[in-house]
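Following up on my earlier thread - several people asked me to post the actual chain instead of describing it. Fair enough. Here it is, all 573 residues.
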Amino acid sequence: MRTCSKCNVHVPEAEAKFCPVCGGPLAASRNKSKITLIIASVACLVLIIAFVSWAIIVHSRSAYAAVIAPEGTDMFCVINPDLGQVKNFNRIKDIYMSIPEVKKILDDYQNQLKKDSDIDYENDIKPWLGREVAFMMPDVDTINHSKPGVLVTVATKNKKKTDLFLEKVRSKLEREGADFQERDYQGIKITVQEERSGYTPLVYAYVRNFLLLSDSEDLICQAIDKSKDKGQGSLSKNQDYKNVMAQLPKSRLGSMYIDFRDLAGAISRESDLNFDQLHQLQLYKGMGLSLSCEDEGVRLDYVLACNPEKTEIGDTESSRSGSLAGTLNITPGDAIAYFGCADLKTALENLNRDIENLRYGEDYGENIEQELGIDLEHDVFSWMRGEIAFAVLPDNTTFFGSSGSNLGMYAMIGVSDSQRASSKTEMIMHRMIENSEFEKDDETINGQEVHLVRDLYTGNVAFGYGFRNDYLIIGSSLETLRKAMGSNSVALANSAAFREAIGNKTHSDTCLFVDIRKGLDLFRSSMGESERQEFNEEVYPFIKPIKSVSFTTEKTKTKDQFVRGGLLVSITQ
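Reply from S.P.:
Thanks for posting it. Predicted structure:
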Protein backbone atom coordinates (compact mmCIF):
# COMPACT_ATOMS: atom_id res chain seq x y z
CA MET A 1 0.00 0.00 0.00
CA ARG A 2 1.26 3.45 -0.99
CA THR A 3 0.39 6.97 0.25
CA CYS A 4 -0.17 10.03 -2.02
CA SER A 5 2.42 12.72 -1.24
CA LYS A 6 -0.11 15.55 -1.98
CA CYS A 7 -3.35 14.55 -0.24
CA ASN A 8 -2.12 11.69 2.01
CA VAL A 9 -4.74 9.27 0.68
CA HIS A 10 -3.84 5.54 0.99
CA VAL A 11 -3.93 3.78 -2.40
CA PRO A 12 -4.26 -0.04 -2.07
CA GLU A 13 -3.81 -0.88 -5.79
CA ALA A 14 -0.21 -1.84 -6.38
CA GLU A 15 -0.40 -1.12 -10.14
CA ALA A 16 -1.90 2.42 -9.84
CA LYS A 17 0.33 5.21 -11.19
CA PHE A 18 -1.85 8.22 -10.17
CA CYS A 19 -3.85 9.12 -7.04
CA PRO A 20 -7.61 8.45 -7.59
CA VAL A 21 -8.55 11.58 -5.49
CA CYS A 22 -6.20 14.39 -6.57
CA GLY A 23 -4.69 12.82 -9.70
CA GLY A 24 -1.13 13.32 -8.49
CA PRO A 25 1.63 10.81 -9.53
CA LEU A 26 2.43 8.02 -7.10
CA ALA A 27 6.03 6.99 -6.18
CA ALA A 28 7.30 3.52 -7.21
CA SER A 29 6.67 0.72 -4.68
CA ARG A 30 9.60 -0.25 -2.39
CA ASN A 31 10.02 -3.12 0.04
CA LYS A 32 11.70 -1.21 2.86
CA SER A 33 12.07 -4.23 5.12
CA LYS A 34 13.83 -6.20 2.39
CA ILE A 35 16.24 -3.34 1.62
CA THR A 36 16.97 -2.97 5.33
CA LEU A 37 17.69 -6.70 5.56
CA ILE A 38 20.06 -6.56 2.57
CA ILE A 39 21.94 -3.58 4.04
CA ALA A 40 22.23 -5.31 7.41
CA SER A 41 23.43 -8.52 5.77
CA VAL A 42 26.10 -6.69 3.78
CA ALA A 43 27.25 -4.88 6.94
CA CYS A 44 27.48 -8.18 8.84
CA LEU A 45 29.43 -9.75 5.97
CA VAL A 46 31.91 -6.86 5.96
CA LEU A 47 32.35 -7.19 9.73
CA ILE A 48 32.91 -10.97 9.47
CA ILE A 49 35.50 -10.53 6.70
CA ALA A 50 37.25 -7.83 8.73
CA PHE A 51 37.29 -10.03 11.85
CA VAL A 52 38.63 -13.10 9.99
CA SER A 53 41.32 -10.98 8.32
CA TRP A 54 42.31 -9.54 11.68
CA ALA A 55 42.46 -13.03 13.24
CA ILE A 56 44.66 -14.32 10.41
CA ILE A 57 47.02 -11.36 10.72
CA VAL A 58 47.22 -11.65 14.51
CA HIS A 59 47.84 -15.40 14.57
CA SER A 60 50.32 -15.49 11.68
CA ARG A 61 52.47 -12.55 12.75
CA SER A 62 55.82 -13.04 14.41
CA ALA A 63 56.17 -13.02 18.16
CA TYR A 64 56.58 -9.49 19.48
CA ALA A 65 59.76 -10.59 21.25
CA ALA A 66 61.37 -11.01 17.80
CA VAL A 67 60.83 -7.26 17.25
CA ILE A 68 63.03 -6.36 20.22
CA ALA A 69 65.64 -9.12 19.70
CA PRO A 70 68.92 -8.23 17.91
CA GLU A 71 68.94 -9.21 14.23
CA GLY A 72 71.81 -11.67 14.68
CA THR A 73 70.26 -13.49 17.67
CA ASP A 74 71.71 -17.00 17.78
CA MET A 75 69.00 -18.68 19.84
CA PHE A 76 65.39 -17.55 20.16
CA CYS A 77 62.60 -19.48 21.87
CA VAL A 78 59.01 -18.30 22.31
CA ILE A 79 55.75 -19.67 23.71
CA ASN A 80 52.77 -17.89 22.14
CA PRO A 81 49.84 -20.29 21.65
CA ASP A 82 46.70 -19.40 19.73
CA LEU A 83 43.26 -20.32 21.09
CA GLY A 84 43.21 -23.70 19.32
CA GLN A 85 46.52 -24.65 20.93
CA VAL A 86 45.26 -23.62 24.36
CA LYS A 87 42.22 -25.87 23.90
CA ASN A 88 44.31 -28.90 22.88
CA PHE A 89 46.86 -28.22 25.61
CA ASN A 90 44.12 -28.18 28.23
CA ARG A 91 42.84 -31.53 26.92
CA ILE A 92 46.29 -33.11 27.38
CA LYS A 93 46.72 -31.41 30.75
CA ASP A 94 43.38 -32.80 31.93
CA ILE A 95 44.46 -36.32 30.90
CA TYR A 96 47.60 -36.07 33.02
CA MET A 97 45.99 -34.25 35.93
CA SER A 98 43.43 -37.07 36.19
CA ILE A 99 46.32 -39.39 37.17
CA PRO A 100 46.66 -39.06 40.99
CA GLU A 101 50.43 -39.73 41.01
CA VAL A 102 51.12 -37.02 38.43
CA LYS A 103 48.91 -34.48 40.17
CA LYS A 104 50.62 -35.18 43.49
CA ILE A 105 54.11 -34.68 42.02
CA LEU A 106 53.10 -31.38 40.39
CA ASP A 107 51.42 -30.18 43.59
CA ASP A 108 54.51 -31.12 45.58
CA TYR A 109 56.69 -29.19 43.13
CA GLN A 110 54.58 -26.06 43.46
CA ASN A 111 54.62 -26.37 47.25
CA GLN A 112 58.40 -26.76 47.24
CA LEU A 113 58.74 -23.72 44.96
CA LYS A 114 56.64 -21.70 47.37
CA LYS A 115 58.71 -22.94 50.32
CA ASP A 116 62.09 -22.19 48.68
CA SER A 117 61.29 -18.87 47.02
CA ASP A 118 58.01 -17.75 48.62
CA ILE A 119 56.56 -17.67 45.09
CA ASP A 120 53.07 -19.10 44.58
CA TYR A 121 52.29 -19.55 40.89
CA GLU A 122 48.50 -19.38 41.33
CA ASN A 123 48.60 -16.14 43.34
CA ASP A 124 51.83 -14.41 42.28
CA ILE A 125 52.25 -15.22 38.57
CA LYS A 126 49.07 -16.55 36.96
CA PRO A 127 46.98 -13.38 37.55
CA TRP A 128 49.24 -11.25 35.31
CA LEU A 129 50.90 -13.77 32.95
CA GLY A 130 50.11 -13.01 29.31
CA ARG A 131 50.12 -15.28 26.25
CA GLU A 132 53.71 -14.75 25.13
CA VAL A 133 56.92 -15.73 26.90
CA ALA A 134 60.27 -15.64 25.08
CA PHE A 135 63.82 -16.65 25.93
CA MET A 136 66.78 -15.57 23.81
CA MET A 137 70.57 -15.72 23.73
CA PRO A 138 71.60 -13.02 21.27
CA ASP A 139 75.24 -14.14 21.05
CA VAL A 140 76.33 -17.66 22.03
CA ASP A 141 79.86 -16.88 20.83
CA THR A 142 80.50 -14.02 23.24
CA ILE A 143 84.24 -13.49 23.62
CA ASN A 144 84.30 -10.79 26.32
CA HIS A 145 82.02 -12.66 28.73
CA SER A 146 82.34 -15.98 30.54
CA LYS A 147 78.85 -16.91 29.39
CA PRO A 148 76.32 -15.57 26.87
CA GLY A 149 73.81 -12.96 27.99
CA VAL A 150 70.17 -13.99 28.34
CA LEU A 151 67.03 -11.95 27.74
CA VAL A 152 63.53 -13.07 28.76
CA THR A 153 60.36 -11.24 27.73
CA VAL A 154 57.00 -11.93 29.35
CA ALA A 155 53.68 -10.45 28.23
CA THR A 156 51.74 -9.00 31.15
CA LYS A 157 48.00 -8.37 31.26
CA ASN A 158 48.13 -6.50 34.57
CA LYS A 159 51.15 -4.32 35.38
CA LYS A 160 50.05 -3.63 38.96
CA LYS A 161 50.04 -7.33 39.77
CA THR A 162 53.32 -7.74 37.91
CA ASP A 163 54.81 -5.00 40.09
CA LEU A 164 53.67 -6.86 43.20
CA PHE A 165 55.45 -10.00 41.96
CA LEU A 166 58.65 -8.05 41.17
CA GLU A 167 58.55 -6.37 44.57
CA LYS A 168 58.29 -9.77 46.23
CA VAL A 169 61.29 -11.08 44.29
CA ARG A 170 63.29 -7.92 44.91
CA SER A 171 62.55 -7.92 48.66
CA LYS A 172 63.75 -11.50 48.99
CA LEU A 173 67.01 -10.67 47.15
CA GLU A 174 67.54 -7.56 49.27
CA ARG A 175 67.15 -9.61 52.43
CA GLU A 176 69.96 -11.78 51.07
CA GLY A 177 72.20 -8.73 50.64
CA ALA A 178 71.45 -7.59 47.09
CA ASP A 179 71.45 -3.87 46.17
CA PHE A 180 69.24 -2.40 43.45
CA GLN A 181 69.43 0.89 41.57
CA GLU A 182 66.92 2.51 39.24
CA ARG A 183 68.13 4.17 36.06
CA ASP A 184 66.47 6.00 33.21
CA TYR A 185 67.07 5.02 29.58
CA GLN A 186 65.15 6.88 26.87
CA GLY A 187 62.36 7.62 29.32
CA ILE A 188 62.06 4.01 30.52
CA LYS A 189 62.94 2.98 34.07
CA ILE A 190 65.45 0.14 34.35
CA THR A 191 65.96 -1.62 37.68
CA VAL A 192 69.49 -3.01 38.01
CA GLN A 193 70.89 -5.33 40.66
CA GLU A 194 74.47 -4.46 41.45
CA GLU A 195 76.87 -7.23 40.46
CA ARG A 196 78.47 -9.29 43.20
CA SER A 197 80.95 -12.12 42.98
CA GLY A 198 79.21 -15.45 42.59
CA TYR A 199 75.81 -13.91 41.79
CA THR A 200 73.98 -13.46 38.50
CA PRO A 201 72.55 -9.93 38.49
CA LEU A 202 68.86 -9.29 37.81
CA VAL A 203 67.91 -6.45 35.46
CA TYR A 204 64.33 -5.67 34.50
CA ALA A 205 62.20 -3.07 32.77
CA TYR A 206 58.88 -2.64 30.94
CA VAL A 207 58.51 -2.17 27.18
CA ARG A 208 54.90 -1.66 26.16
CA ASN A 209 53.00 -4.46 27.92
CA PHE A 210 56.07 -6.70 28.19
CA LEU A 211 58.27 -7.34 31.20
CA LEU A 212 61.95 -7.66 30.22
CA LEU A 213 64.25 -9.72 32.46
CA SER A 214 67.97 -10.17 31.87
CA ASP A 215 71.40 -10.59 33.42
CA SER A 216 72.71 -7.78 31.21
CA GLU A 217 71.75 -4.12 31.26
CA ASP A 218 73.09 -3.79 27.71
CA LEU A 219 70.58 -6.34 26.41
CA ILE A 220 67.72 -4.48 28.08
CA CYS A 221 68.88 -1.22 26.48
CA GLN A 222 69.16 -2.88 23.06
CA ALA A 223 65.59 -4.17 23.42
CA ILE A 224 64.38 -0.67 24.29
CA ASP A 225 66.16 0.71 21.22
CA LYS A 226 64.51 -1.88 18.96
CA SER A 227 61.12 -1.05 20.44
CA LYS A 228 61.66 2.67 19.83
CA ASP A 229 62.60 2.24 16.16
CA LYS A 230 59.80 -0.32 15.54
CA GLY A 231 62.09 -3.31 15.18
CA GLN A 232 64.55 -1.97 12.62
CA GLY A 233 67.63 -4.19 12.69
CA SER A 234 65.81 -6.78 14.80
CA LEU A 235 65.40 -10.53 14.44
CA SER A 236 61.95 -9.98 12.95
CA LYS A 237 63.69 -8.40 9.93
CA ASN A 238 66.22 -11.23 9.55
CA GLN A 239 65.38 -12.95 6.26
CA ASP A 240 66.78 -16.33 7.32
CA TYR A 241 64.64 -16.26 10.46
CA LYS A 242 61.52 -15.30 8.53
CA ASN A 243 62.09 -17.99 5.88
CA VAL A 244 62.53 -20.73 8.47
CA MET A 245 59.55 -19.69 10.60
CA ALA A 246 57.32 -19.58 7.50
CA GLN A 247 57.97 -23.31 6.95
CA LEU A 248 56.68 -24.34 10.39
CA PRO A 249 52.99 -24.99 11.22
CA LYS A 250 51.10 -21.72 11.64
CA SER A 251 49.18 -22.96 14.67
CA ARG A 252 51.72 -23.82 17.35
CA LEU A 253 52.27 -23.71 21.07
CA GLY A 254 55.75 -22.28 20.69
CA SER A 255 58.84 -22.24 18.49
CA MET A 256 62.62 -22.00 18.54
CA TYR A 257 65.18 -20.65 16.09
CA ILE A 258 68.90 -21.50 16.14
CA ASP A 259 71.57 -19.90 13.96
CA PHE A 260 74.00 -22.73 13.15
CA ARG A 261 76.78 -20.56 11.78
CA ASP A 262 77.66 -18.84 15.06
CA LEU A 263 76.96 -22.06 16.95
CA ALA A 264 79.59 -23.91 14.90
CA GLY A 265 82.13 -21.21 15.69
CA ALA A 266 81.39 -21.42 19.41
CA ILE A 267 81.70 -25.21 19.44
CA SER A 268 85.01 -25.13 17.58
CA ARG A 269 86.44 -22.75 20.19
CA GLU A 270 85.31 -24.91 23.11
CA SER A 271 86.44 -28.31 21.77
CA ASP A 272 89.07 -30.11 19.74
CA LEU A 273 86.91 -29.71 16.65
CA ASN A 274 87.65 -27.03 14.09
CA PHE A 275 85.04 -25.42 11.88
CA ASP A 276 85.90 -27.59 8.87
CA GLN A 277 85.27 -30.73 10.90
CA LEU A 278 81.77 -29.62 11.90
CA HIS A 279 80.58 -31.14 8.66
CA GLN A 280 76.87 -31.46 9.37
CA LEU A 281 76.53 -27.97 10.87
CA GLN A 282 78.17 -26.48 7.79
CA LEU A 283 75.45 -27.94 5.58
CA TYR A 284 72.77 -25.74 7.13
CA LYS A 285 72.33 -22.06 7.93
CA GLY A 286 69.82 -22.43 10.71
CA MET A 287 67.12 -24.52 12.30
CA GLY A 288 63.53 -23.91 13.32
CA LEU A 289 61.53 -25.99 15.81
CA SER A 290 57.86 -25.78 16.68
CA LEU A 291 55.84 -27.48 19.41
CA SER A 292 52.12 -27.94 18.93
CA CYS A 293 49.24 -29.71 20.63
CA GLU A 294 46.99 -31.65 18.26
CA ASP A 295 44.01 -33.95 18.54
CA GLU A 296 46.39 -36.93 18.39
CA GLY A 297 48.83 -35.60 20.99
CA VAL A 298 51.96 -33.47 21.03
CA ARG A 299 53.90 -32.76 17.83
CA LEU A 300 57.42 -31.39 17.36
CA ASP A 301 58.28 -30.19 13.84
CA TYR A 302 61.67 -29.03 12.63
CA VAL A 303 63.01 -27.26 9.54
CA LEU A 304 66.64 -27.03 8.46
CA ALA A 305 67.59 -24.19 6.11
CA CYS A 306 70.22 -25.54 3.74
CA ASN A 307 73.36 -23.59 2.97
CA PRO A 308 73.42 -23.15 -0.84
CA GLU A 309 77.16 -22.53 -0.73
CA LYS A 310 77.70 -26.16 0.26
CA THR A 311 77.02 -27.94 -3.04
CA GLU A 312 77.70 -31.40 -1.61
CA ILE A 313 74.14 -31.59 -0.20
CA GLY A 314 72.53 -31.18 -3.61
CA ASP A 315 70.52 -33.66 -5.64
CA THR A 316 73.36 -36.19 -5.69
CA GLU A 317 72.64 -37.06 -2.06
CA SER A 318 68.94 -37.63 -2.61
CA SER A 319 69.60 -39.73 -5.71
CA ARG A 320 71.72 -42.16 -3.70
CA SER A 321 69.18 -42.70 -0.93
CA GLY A 322 67.08 -45.84 -1.05
CA SER A 323 63.54 -46.66 0.04
CA LEU A 324 62.27 -47.90 3.40
CA ALA A 325 59.35 -49.76 1.83
CA GLY A 326 61.31 -53.03 1.60
CA THR A 327 62.32 -53.08 5.27
CA LEU A 328 58.82 -52.07 6.42
CA ASN A 329 57.39 -55.05 4.54
CA ILE A 330 59.98 -57.42 6.04
CA THR A 331 59.23 -56.23 9.58
CA PRO A 332 56.29 -58.07 11.21
CA GLY A 333 53.26 -56.15 12.44
CA ASP A 334 53.83 -57.12 16.08
CA ALA A 335 57.14 -55.20 16.17
CA ILE A 336 57.56 -53.02 19.23
CA ALA A 337 59.90 -50.55 17.54
CA TYR A 338 61.29 -49.78 14.10
CA PHE A 339 63.96 -47.36 12.94
CA GLY A 340 64.97 -46.94 9.32
CA CYS A 341 67.11 -44.50 7.36
CA ALA A 342 67.09 -44.42 3.57
CA ASP A 343 70.71 -43.27 3.35
CA LEU A 344 72.39 -44.16 6.61
CA LYS A 345 75.39 -45.30 4.58
CA THR A 346 76.29 -41.68 3.76
CA ALA A 347 75.99 -40.69 7.43
CA LEU A 348 78.29 -43.57 8.44
CA GLU A 349 80.83 -42.62 5.78
CA ASN A 350 80.78 -39.00 6.98
CA LEU A 351 81.16 -40.10 10.60
CA ASN A 352 84.09 -42.34 9.70
CA ARG A 353 85.78 -39.49 7.82
CA ASP A 354 85.16 -36.99 10.63
CA ILE A 355 86.66 -39.34 13.23
CA GLU A 356 89.76 -39.79 11.10
CA ASN A 357 90.10 -36.00 10.85
CA LEU A 358 90.05 -35.53 14.61
CA ARG A 359 93.28 -34.70 16.38
CA TYR A 360 93.42 -38.14 17.99
CA GLY A 361 91.71 -40.07 15.20
CA GLU A 362 94.44 -40.17 12.57
CA ASP A 363 95.08 -43.90 13.11
CA TYR A 364 91.41 -44.80 13.52
CA GLY A 365 91.07 -46.74 10.27
CA GLU A 366 94.42 -48.47 10.66
CA ASN A 367 93.55 -49.59 14.20
CA ILE A 368 90.30 -51.19 13.05
CA GLU A 369 92.08 -52.99 10.25
CA GLN A 370 94.79 -54.27 12.62
CA GLU A 371 92.32 -55.41 15.29
CA LEU A 372 89.58 -56.88 13.09
CA GLY A 373 91.24 -57.21 9.72
CA ILE A 374 88.49 -55.02 8.19
CA ASP A 375 88.87 -52.09 5.83
CA LEU A 376 85.59 -50.20 6.31
CA GLU A 377 85.65 -48.58 2.88
CA HIS A 378 86.40 -51.70 0.82
CA ASP A 379 84.92 -54.45 3.00
CA VAL A 380 81.72 -52.75 4.20
CA PHE A 381 80.75 -49.51 2.46
CA SER A 382 81.55 -50.82 -1.02
CA TRP A 383 78.56 -53.23 -1.13
CA MET A 384 76.01 -51.23 0.91
CA ARG A 385 73.14 -49.68 -1.06
CA GLY A 386 72.15 -47.00 1.41
CA GLU A 387 69.14 -47.91 3.52
CA ILE A 388 69.58 -49.50 6.94
CA ALA A 389 66.79 -50.39 9.36
CA PHE A 390 66.39 -51.99 12.79
CA ALA A 391 63.38 -53.77 14.30
CA VAL A 392 62.66 -54.74 17.92
CA LEU A 393 60.06 -57.44 18.60
CA PRO A 394 58.95 -59.90 21.29
CA ASP A 395 61.25 -62.91 21.68
CA ASN A 396 61.35 -65.22 24.70
CA THR A 397 64.42 -67.21 23.62
CA THR A 398 67.79 -65.43 23.77
CA PHE A 399 69.20 -61.99 23.07
CA PHE A 400 72.65 -62.21 21.45
CA GLY A 401 73.25 -65.45 23.33
CA SER A 402 71.95 -64.30 26.74
CA SER A 403 68.85 -65.94 28.17
CA GLY A 404 66.20 -64.24 30.29
CA SER A 405 65.36 -61.48 27.81
CA ASN A 406 61.95 -61.12 26.19
CA LEU A 407 63.16 -58.93 23.33
CA GLY A 408 64.68 -59.68 19.96
CA MET A 409 66.29 -57.38 17.42
CA TYR A 410 67.50 -57.55 13.85
CA ALA A 411 69.11 -55.22 11.36
CA MET A 412 68.27 -54.94 7.66
CA ILE A 413 71.01 -53.55 5.41
CA GLY A 414 70.34 -52.76 1.76
CA VAL A 415 72.76 -54.53 -0.59
CA SER A 416 73.83 -53.19 -4.01
CA ASP A 417 76.04 -56.17 -4.94
CA SER A 418 74.76 -59.44 -3.44
CA GLN A 419 77.76 -61.52 -4.47
CA ARG A 420 80.30 -59.06 -3.06
CA ALA A 421 78.20 -58.54 0.08
CA SER A 422 78.03 -62.29 0.68
CA SER A 423 81.77 -62.86 0.25
CA LYS A 424 82.76 -59.86 2.37
CA THR A 425 80.30 -60.80 5.11
CA GLU A 426 81.65 -64.35 5.18
CA MET A 427 85.19 -63.01 5.42
CA ILE A 428 84.32 -60.63 8.28
CA MET A 429 82.44 -63.34 10.21
CA HIS A 430 85.27 -65.83 9.75
CA ARG A 431 87.80 -63.36 11.16
CA MET A 432 85.53 -62.50 14.07
CA ILE A 433 84.97 -66.07 15.28
CA GLU A 434 88.27 -67.77 14.46
CA ASN A 435 90.19 -68.76 17.58
CA SER A 436 87.15 -67.75 19.67
CA GLU A 437 84.58 -69.61 21.76
CA PHE A 438 82.04 -69.59 18.93
CA GLU A 439 81.26 -71.83 16.00
CA LYS A 440 79.18 -71.36 12.86
CA ASP A 441 76.52 -73.64 11.38
CA ASP A 442 73.85 -73.24 8.74
CA GLU A 443 70.09 -73.60 8.63
CA THR A 444 67.42 -73.13 5.99
CA ILE A 445 64.48 -70.83 6.77
CA ASN A 446 61.69 -70.24 4.26
CA GLY A 447 63.92 -71.70 1.52
CA GLN A 448 66.78 -69.32 2.35
CA GLU A 449 70.14 -70.21 3.88
CA VAL A 450 70.89 -68.65 7.27
CA HIS A 451 74.24 -68.71 9.03
CA LEU A 452 74.20 -69.07 12.83
CA VAL A 453 77.00 -68.22 15.24
CA ARG A 454 76.67 -70.34 18.41
CA ASP A 455 78.36 -70.34 21.80
CA LEU A 456 80.52 -73.49 22.02
CA TYR A 457 79.57 -74.15 25.65
CA THR A 458 75.87 -73.25 25.88
CA GLY A 459 74.87 -73.91 22.29
CA ASN A 460 72.89 -70.64 22.30
CA VAL A 461 72.77 -68.63 19.11
CA ALA A 462 74.84 -65.48 19.68
CA PHE A 463 73.58 -64.05 16.40
CA GLY A 464 72.80 -65.11 12.87
CA TYR A 465 72.64 -63.64 9.38
CA GLY A 466 71.28 -64.29 5.93
CA PHE A 467 70.10 -62.55 2.77
CA ARG A 468 66.51 -61.78 1.77
CA ASN A 469 65.30 -59.57 -1.09
CA ASP A 470 68.66 -57.79 -1.49
CA TYR A 471 68.92 -57.19 2.24
CA LEU A 472 71.48 -58.54 4.67
CA ILE A 473 69.56 -59.60 7.78
CA ILE A 474 71.46 -59.83 11.10
CA GLY A 475 69.38 -61.15 14.01
CA SER A 476 69.87 -61.55 17.76
CA SER A 477 68.43 -65.09 17.93
CA LEU A 478 67.19 -67.98 15.81
CA GLU A 479 63.57 -67.09 16.59
CA THR A 480 64.13 -63.50 15.50
CA LEU A 481 65.73 -64.67 12.25
CA ARG A 482 62.76 -66.94 11.57
CA LYS A 483 60.44 -63.94 11.79
CA ALA A 484 62.74 -61.82 9.62
CA MET A 485 63.23 -64.50 6.95
CA GLY A 486 59.69 -65.83 7.03
CA SER A 487 56.46 -64.48 5.59
CA ASN A 488 54.39 -62.17 7.82
CA SER A 489 50.60 -62.31 7.85
CA VAL A 490 50.63 -58.56 8.54
CA ALA A 491 53.67 -56.42 7.79
CA LEU A 492 54.43 -53.39 9.95
CA ALA A 493 53.74 -51.10 6.99
CA ASN A 494 50.10 -52.28 6.99
CA SER A 495 49.50 -52.53 10.75
CA ALA A 496 46.81 -50.25 12.19
CA ALA A 497 49.04 -48.79 14.92
CA PHE A 498 51.81 -47.90 12.47
CA ARG A 499 49.47 -46.37 9.90
CA GLU A 500 47.71 -44.31 12.57
CA ALA A 501 51.02 -42.88 13.81
CA ILE A 502 52.84 -42.39 10.49
CA GLY A 503 49.90 -41.62 8.21
CA ASN A 504 50.95 -41.06 4.61
CA LYS A 505 54.63 -40.49 5.41
CA THR A 506 55.85 -44.00 4.64
CA HIS A 507 58.13 -42.66 1.88
CA SER A 508 60.19 -40.67 4.36
CA ASP A 509 63.97 -40.46 4.41
CA THR A 510 64.03 -41.46 8.10
CA CYS A 511 61.31 -43.22 10.07
CA LEU A 512 61.05 -44.13 13.75
CA PHE A 513 58.05 -45.87 15.30
CA VAL A 514 57.71 -47.10 18.88
CA ASP A 515 54.54 -48.79 20.15
CA ILE A 516 54.83 -47.52 23.73
CA ARG A 517 51.96 -49.53 25.22
CA LYS A 518 53.10 -52.81 23.69
CA GLY A 519 56.66 -52.16 24.82
CA LEU A 520 55.59 -51.16 28.33
CA ASP A 521 53.54 -54.32 28.80
CA LEU A 522 56.51 -56.43 27.77
CA PHE A 523 58.95 -54.40 29.86
CA ARG A 524 56.86 -54.57 33.03
CA SER A 525 56.28 -58.30 32.65
CA SER A 526 60.05 -58.89 32.76
CA MET A 527 60.51 -57.04 36.06
CA GLY A 528 60.68 -58.44 39.54
CA GLU A 529 57.96 -57.54 42.02
CA SER A 530 59.94 -54.78 43.78
CA GLU A 531 61.20 -53.30 40.50
CA ARG A 532 57.69 -53.29 39.04
CA GLN A 533 56.28 -51.55 42.12
CA GLU A 534 58.96 -48.83 41.96
CA PHE A 535 58.44 -48.41 38.21
CA ASN A 536 54.66 -48.19 38.61
CA GLU A 537 55.02 -45.44 41.22
CA GLU A 538 57.78 -43.29 39.73
CA VAL A 539 57.73 -43.78 35.95
CA TYR A 540 54.60 -45.50 34.65
CA PRO A 541 52.08 -42.73 35.53
CA PHE A 542 53.90 -40.31 33.21
CA ILE A 543 54.13 -42.78 30.32
CA LYS A 544 50.69 -44.37 30.72
CA PRO A 545 48.77 -41.88 28.48
CA ILE A 546 51.32 -42.23 25.64
CA LYS A 547 50.15 -44.63 22.93
CA SER A 548 53.06 -44.39 20.48
CA VAL A 549 55.98 -42.24 19.41
CA SER A 550 56.80 -41.67 15.75
CA PHE A 551 59.36 -39.58 13.91
CA THR A 552 59.78 -38.97 10.18
CA THR A 553 61.90 -36.79 7.94
CA GLU A 554 61.19 -36.05 4.32
CA LYS A 555 63.33 -37.39 1.51
CA THR A 556 66.57 -35.43 1.50
CA LYS A 557 66.18 -32.85 -1.25
CA THR A 558 67.42 -29.31 -1.31
CA LYS A 559 65.65 -27.82 -4.33
CA ASP A 560 63.59 -25.57 -2.01
CA GLN A 561 66.56 -25.16 0.38
CA PHE A 562 64.73 -26.80 3.30
CA VAL A 563 64.69 -30.20 4.97
CA ARG A 564 61.75 -31.01 7.24
CA GLY A 565 60.74 -33.58 9.81
CA GLY A 566 58.42 -34.14 12.73
CA LEU A 567 57.97 -36.13 15.94
CA LEU A 568 54.49 -37.11 17.13
CA VAL A 569 53.76 -38.34 20.66
CA SER A 570 50.29 -39.87 20.52
CA ILE A 571 48.42 -39.27 23.79
CA THR A 572 45.04 -40.74 24.69
CA GLN A 573 42.96 -41.15 27.84
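The longest strand covers residues 384-394. That should answer part of your original question.
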